[in-house]
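agent> fetching stored inputs for the magnesium ion docking request
agent> found them:
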Amino acid sequence: MGALELKNVTKAFGTTEVIKGVDLTVNDGEFCVFVGPSGCGKSTLLRIIAGLEDATAGDILLDGKRVNDVAPAKRELAMVFQSYALYPHLTVRDNMGLALKQAGQSRATIQAATDKAAAMLSLEPLMDRRPAELSGGQRQRVAIGRAIVRTPKLFLFDEPLSNLDAALRVATRIEIARLHRDLKATMIYVTHDQVEAMTLADRIVVLRAGRVEQVGSPMELYNNPANTFVAGFIGSPQMNFLDAAALGFAPGQVGIRPEHLEISQTAGAIPAEVSHVEKLGGETLVYARSPEHGLLTVRLFGEHHYQVAEPVWLTLQYARAFQFAPDGKRRS
Amino acid sequence: MSARLSPGRTIAAHAILIAWTLVALFPVFVIVINSFKSRKAIFADPLALPLPGNFDWVGYETVLKQGDFFLYFQNSLIVTVASLFFVLLFGAMAAFALSEYRFRGNTLMGLYLALGIMIPIRLGTVAILEMMVASGLVNTLTALILVYTAQGLPLAVFILAEFMKSVSDDLKNAGRIDGLSEYRIFFSLVLPLVRPAMATVAVFTMIPIWNDLWFPLILAPAEETKTVTLGAQVFIGQFVTNWNAVLAALSLAIVPVLVLYLIFSRQLIRGITAGAVK
Ligand SMILES: Nc1ncnc2c1ncn2[C@@H]1O[C@H](COP(=O)(O)OP(=O)(O)OP(=O)(O)O)[C@@H](O)[C@H]1O
Ligand SMILES: [Mg+2]
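agent> prediction call returned; pasting tokens
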């Protein structure tokens, strides 16, 4: 229970089409991550699933039942918002219990459910505070707690961690992964963050301008991108795109990830000049400019010393390279 | 205030604000001090403070003895509070609909409602009077409440709609997912967050209603529906004006608005300092 199916869903605001026909199946218990550039319609799609926005056309099915005309509260789903969206006038406990109260549950049931969620998220000491008296991280935990309390079939997360600092983000990310294991519920998660997408997802859906570009497990997308857009979007730092003709291939582009590009001070296939070096401790990123291919990124593990303006040679690991046709599609 | 001003600018700002406060309060001050003086003393030296030599309750005695001043007060209060209530309720509801729901003609409707800000309702006095006569509402407080509600709505809708647009969509959506009705979302989520705007609207709406002489004179001049402003007119005669009584009546009339104003301004401050969503 908790399977979601979208059938040719479209959404237009006035005359601008924002979602242009999305077909998608999310299996029960799956952790599905939506990624895509800003404005591509991730939040809109999430709101359509939640019932906060009507689809212009197409069907939304939850557990095989069409829910297009079902009110949000009746869809048995919970949503966690980027801005937390806690009720400012209610205490943490009442924030978490409101949905159950609206559903007419007894006091004891609500108490038990909120206590259980609070224990899961270590919120017990905060139960009687109001949102204004909490830190950002605590507010986000309350927002997640509010979602858990309802024991929904489907969780929707819209960039829940983007307002948190780096350390808290990691902690909360791990928390969410653990919740997914414990609750075994279906989760749909929108993010801009590569690491969140790669580490949390069972399946990633890459969206661009209201269309699904590719769906697959993180490693499928990493190792087998369908086109230049997905190849460039998944993986950080971004994949390098080289001019295929200059390398002696059919016209188009050759994609190679920074970790699959070798650098040498003495010999190699592509002459280039170091333009910038980033030392991250565990790894070093060398940005080298080639006259034919432009700026290329090389990712090296450990500490390496390159000087800016130093001439270097780059070599592709051809086994790891991807060939793309001029229209961006992957050549098989 | 985030940026710190230099001392010179702080002093200048305070000097200007204090000067303005004095200018604004001066007429009120003159009214109040003279209301405690004898008629002779008022004319001899209008700016003198009420001291044992010239002190006189006669103004207040006249006002309190003169018929139904308490009734007038009661009428004024009923009219003001009721109008205020309806303006805030209907204004906020209309503003919520305009800012929250997408429907055909939304913008047009907003403009139409805002039009009333620019067209004075008094232009329609004759028509309003005819309407009230036809519906038998002349000399009732209901007539005044209806007119003042209509008068206050345009500005209320305009200001509140702008504020409601700024209320987080996520918060309203969270409420919808939790199963709150649109009314609950409106009353318990949105209204508390726009409380400062409500207080502003309340103050702007209340003062003209309390002070109005025009509509009470035309629509409800009967003895039992007189408002304070109209009631005070009995002391202003064509030949003799009972200044003591007029000044005392005006001084008394300030008190209730002052109380209402204090209530709303506390709301204003509380609204500004209350914890936001994020
Ligand atoms: N109520 C609305 N009216 C008109 N256009 C809208 C509305 N809501 C969203 N849009 C448009 O729909 C597009 C998709 O918006 P959406 O919020 O879904 O993007 P997103 O993928 O979530 O972006 P981000 O990553 O920045 O959150 C945007 O171009 C936006 O301008
Ligand atoms: Mg978004």
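agent> quick read of the result: The CA atoms of residues 16 and 84 of chain B lie 32 Å apart.
agent> awaiting further instructions
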